[in-house]
Amino acid sequence: MSDSLHTMMDYPLTLTALLERAGQYFADKEVVSRLPDGSMHRSNWGQIKDRALRMAECLLAAGLKKGDRVATLMWNHYAHLECYFGVPAAGGVLHPLNLRLHPDEIAWIANHAQDRFLIVDDVLLPVLQKFAAKVKFERIWVVKHPGPPSRHEYEDYEAWLKEATGQVPLPAIQENDGASMCYTSGTTGHPKGVLYSHRTQVLHSMAQAMADSCAVSQHDVALLAAPMFHANGWGLSYTAAMVGAKYVLPGPNLDAESLLDLIAREGVTVTCAVPTVWLAALAGMEKRGPDWRPPRDVRILCGGTAPPESLIRKLDHHGFHVIHSWGMTETSPQATVSLLRTKSLAWPEDQQYAVRSKQGWPLPLVEVRTCNEKGLAPWDGETMGELEVRGAWVAASYFNAPETRDRWTADGWFRTGDVATIDPDGCIKLVDRSKDLVKSGGEWISSVDLENMLMSHPAVREAGVVGVHHPKWQERPLAVVALKDGATATADELCAFLGTKFAKWQLPDGFVFVHDLPHTSTGKLLKTELRKKYAEWKWQT
Amino acid sequence: MSDSLHTMMDYPLTLTALLERAGQYFADKEVVSRLPDGSMHRSNWGQIKDRALRMAECLLAAGLKKGDRVATLMWNHYAHLECYFGVPAAGGVLHPLNLRLHPDEIAWIANHAQDRFLIVDDVLLPVLQKFAAKVKFERIWVVKHPGPPSRHEYEDYEAWLKEATGQVPLPAIQENDGASMCYTSGTTGHPKGVLYSHRTQVLHSMAQAMADSCAVSQHDVALLAAPMFHANGWGLSYTAAMVGAKYVLPGPNLDAESLLDLIAREGVTVTCAVPTVWLAALAGMEKRGPDWRPPRDVRILCGGTAPPESLIRKLDHHGFHVIHSWGMTETSPQATVSLLRTKSLAWPEDQQYAVRSKQGWPLPLVEVRTCNEKGLAPWDGETMGELEVRGAWVAASYFNAPETRDRWTADGWFRTGDVATIDPDGCIKLVDRSKDLVKSGGEWISSVDLENMLMSHPAVREAGVVGVHHPKWQERPLAVVALKDGATATADELCAFLGTKFAKWQLPDGFVFVHDLPHTSTGKLLKTELRKKYAEWKWQT
Known about the structure:
The structure is a homodimer. Chain A is α/β, with parallel strands linked by helices. Among the domains of chain A are: 367-433, Luciferase, domain 3 (Roll), CATH 2.30.38; 438-533, ANL, C-terminal domain (GMP Synthetase, Chain A, domain 3). In chain A, 27% of the residues lie in helices and 25% in strands. Chain A has a seven-stranded mixed beta sheet, with helices on both faces. Chain A has a five-stranded parallel beta sheet with strand order 4-3-5-6-7, sandwiched between helices. In chain A, α11 (309-317) links the parallel β13 and β14 (320-324). Chain A is globular. The interface between A and B is large, with 70 and 70 residues.
């Protein structure tokens, strides 16, 4: 008797099946884009499907072979969405380049990924020019947006799509075929690529659509406020297509006013982005009035870094409800969700917010554990360990980077580099990036906890805490603080404020006030920059 | 470059992963069973997990090899749930026998499936005795329930589970390993077996948990009111475990009073069963009062046969909301769902109920089409064709039954035997089983439409319509009607009632009033029986 004696169909999980469903059953559902010049572009899933399949045909005509990488250098809009489906439908691998990186780094990534073709926004041609000499794309297609014409020697995207006949059969896609890839910029070494398969993206979308996850539905209006070049665009494009949601893409316009305007105008009900975006949006809401709310309540899938509890509270007040989630480029990205459990529904508000500020529980088919030098860490909510993860949409390696093999354990779990505790009921709380923990006299201090407390102070807009070398304690925490416009606070005041919750030895030994903190291209606080800047900090004795 | 150049983990989709999750994160969530004697048994997912893994160990000790079938002859309760997970965790295939079939048929099925072992309820030993001589189970374990002890020569289930040490490693499960099987009794030929894999069951559960499907959540209290031996227990056991819902199993007690009592007592929020069960339950609700409602609103996954519109309406009034779904044993079983689409949310009530009475739209990763002698039928809501289906949890063949190959098309779609129309927006409406259509003078008449209209008449409890041979018209419809207790209606009255909606030539040419209509073991109207009984019907000329 064979091992596989089941009688079921061998039906591959492909992104093309999701696209076909959107085109067949939700053809009229709108796909709305705000273009770089601020004007609106309206399409729908029927058109996206047709044009994505045309693109697939054109890519095959251009000589694309299964697994070939096709790069994009684009903001979030309809044409990028067409690439999200058209490239995988042709058997290619979509590779959105992070346009916020240094040109040399973009070039390094494009070369490492061996990108064969490029599709680029006309408004981003100046970015391309800065690294074009260092890469060899066989062909480049330019998406023309409203605005003054740009001079270039490349091909026109619309003219290219018109070459499709609609008569050429597309290749059969297997679920383990590559579909898309993203690079993640570490603080050491080269960027590292994760190459997703059709299967992993379909499973990730099914998980995002579950009631206990983001519950994305055909009745939702979904807004992708995270860049499509970051962590696979958080998977939301594929989930929105699968369920037939109206889909809204903001282009480069992620400032508070543009975002709130778009949310109100299109009736957005679910969105996502890193906390930085929502910190700014919250300020925009408060400017509109203490009780301003959008026309419909909005769920926010929020991660990348942990949203401070104070942000979650204040957003709730304005009808924006954070679904706190943890994930990484390496986890497609959503791996956990921090929604209240049944028993917590009756808890007092403070206790509920405390839970929602943690990273929560893994989704089905994702497993987590924490390990430290003593082995597997117990679920006591106190013992710290490095968070390790495995599951149905978790990376098993980096693309062509055998030197990174040690990021996986011998038994196949991914070492996240995050340090976490796990509560007795399984709730994960990130304590810090392992490299961001402050090692003070043999004890660990969480820079994240200090930052979150500082950011709950009414005068503080943003805060970063880093460990700085100390002659006696090895490291001591230094707080770098940006105050809100017009607000004032002294180091002593902030220290006293922290002292209401932290032990004396955990308090920062120094405070620096700055106008702005440095951020990564994806909006995260850039701790390496802070560490570099204050490496020579002299502690007052 | 290899075809599979992705960098993702090879993480199998297994039922054991769902069980482990339930045990790890929802250990305290209750699993409540009503036992055959009516008494309550309380367990939880932690215990179910422990005991299922013990069972797996004991099965291995008994010599179970991967793919071996383990039969059950049981009602819905905790021990059957343990089998649902324990047998697949050992690498075996769970095979729940349909205890309502004729003993000869049960024996035929057990022999055809080559069942090696059997786990049986003590109260069902009398059923076993009727076919035990015709089958050879190597070992039989008996689940002892409260009540008078039964005399038998078999082993005791509890004593057997105690033999497990918890120290024996279980075999690695691959997602394409067989997990469970069910036989479907056709009206011609032998019963046919479908053998589900771990993968298909996990994907089916992910689909059931989606917001636009049944949205099963950890906050739900799920009641399985369909038998666990019917169509894989509708997949609800696996879905409930995956999300960590409280789970309620009614034993053999599916009468209206037991069901309503259980729903109220345990706070049920989601359930499933064929319309027959809900017709009886509705009568029970009406007896409790015109505005009686359960403590919490209840979603009902309802299929098997189409729930009449009048039933959906009346259940809504009592706080029970039908999620009309179509599926078969061959589709795991859920394949479609008939929830309102976004544009329908603003429709008048009548129009909404008309949609909810149809079978709806396929779930993601399921595809449907209708075909007739002219080929692919258009989506015009009128052209009838046989419904064909393919997808990620659809059968590709029957177990060891090469003679049934013609139930699949040359291009791999399953021919359902159902005749359907598809609306311009993709909504499926079943017209009839292909064999139940009345062929009258070259035209087709839907027996189902006539039955549903008859059942919306205030005096009618249930109605069946069959085609009976007619010398001139080939066939003409005959209506067999069971009236409600104390109600009266004449043939002329019912004919006039139907005449408000149907053309004259579609109206039944005869009416027979009976006390009860015959049903299949799964509660469906037994049309074969009606056809046999009235085969010699003489039309009045």
